[in-house]
Each structure stands twice: as structure tokens, then as C-alpha cells.
Amino acid sequence: MAARRDNYSKVAIGFHWLIALMIIGLIIFGLLMTNPDMPNRFALYQLHKSFGICVLILSVLRLLWRLGHKPPPLPAGMKRWEVAAAKFTHIAFYIIMIGMPLLGWAMVSSTELVIPTRIFNTIPWPDMPGLPRDKALSDIFKNLHYWIGRATIVLILLHIGAALKHHFVNKDNVLRRMLPFSKTKRGSETPG
Fold first, then answer.
1. Which of 38, 39, 100, 145 gets the highest tally of CB atoms within 10 A of its CB?
2. Cα distance between residue 16 and residue 175, in whole Å
3. What is the pLDDT of residues 104-127, one digit of tens each?
4. Going from the N-terminus, what domains does the chain have, and what CATH number goes with each?
């Protein structure tokens, strides 16, 4: 019988950290660019859009990878509510990773202010097909983008807190198996 895989693949780990760093950057850009006193706001908006499109593309690729590669099992002994919370969090992150860039794309595609999107000032990105230029519609997308962004910050903090709880309180391998340079044991043992 083959040993059970207790850690994520290098591809899954790479997707996780690359997208996580981009999302944290997007949150920082989002907070800075909405400050009217911030210099170079236009450049920040363009970077925000560029990284948002990158998150969208990488998240779709990550989802396709995930559908073909089963993640390692959750540690034995987790309470039912913890398992449900872990599953909810992962589903919510996929919805956010794909939904937030789509909302941002819809917002800039429907605003009456027509500014072409060029990924990193190089690659032209089209407006979302079929959306009219309509301020009311753009405002809906803008409000959704804003409030889901705030919810994302809360979800990230809960995710980090849960990972730290697993590491320091439960003393299991949940955190270590997602770290890029960490070694976890293979087999049915859970490292302590």
C-alpha cells in the first residue's frame, strides 16, 4: 500500500503563496489608491488592475489544478465545526479569488470614465463583453468590490489565525505542509 501524501504539491504551494502575496498587495494598493492625498494614484489603479487580472488567471489555473489533484486530508481529531469551517473558508477563497477580479473588471468596463486597461502598461485587456457604460451599474460593482474586499481582509485574518492555532496549539502539520521549504513526513503519521 502506498504511503499517504500529507503535504501539498510544489505546484499547489506555489499557487497558494503567489496568489496570497498578490492579494495582500491588491489590498494594500486598494487602500492606498482610494486615498485622495496619495500621489501617483493613477499608477496604483493601473497596478491594482494588472495584479487583479493576474490573480484571476492564476486562480482559474489553480482551480483547474485542484480539480485534478486531491489535497492532503485534514488532521484526524478535528471537530465537525472545524472541518466545516475549513471547507467553507477554502470555498470562500476560491469565490473571492475569481469573483473579486471579475467584479473589478465589470466595474471598469461599465464606468462612464473610459480608461483602457493595459496589463503592466503593456498588454491590452478588453472591457468585459456585453456590459453597458452605466454609472448606476458601475456603482453596484464598485460597492460589491469594496465590501467583499473588507470581508476578504477578515477571512485572511481568520485563515492565518487558524493556521497558527494548528501549529502552536494543536501542534499538527497543517501549517508546515503549505510552507514552501518545510518537510513533512509521509505516511499515516502526523508530525508533532
1. 100
2. 12
3. 999 999 999 999 999 999 999 999
4. 10-178 (1.20.950)
Q: Which residue has the cell 502506498?
A: 2
Q: What is the pLDDT of residues 26-36, one digit of tens each?
A: 999 999 999 99
Q: List the grid coordinates of 166.
A: 494548528
The whole-angstrom separation of Cα 46 and Cα 24 is 16
Q: CA–CA separation, 135 vs 18, rounded Å?
A: 34
Say how far residue 91 (Cα) sits from the centre of its chain: 11
Is residue 146 within 8 A of residue 48, CB to CB? The reply is: no
Q: Which DSSP string corresponds to 60-76?
A: HHHHHHHHHSPPPPPPT
* CA 52/CA 23 separation, integer angstroms: 8
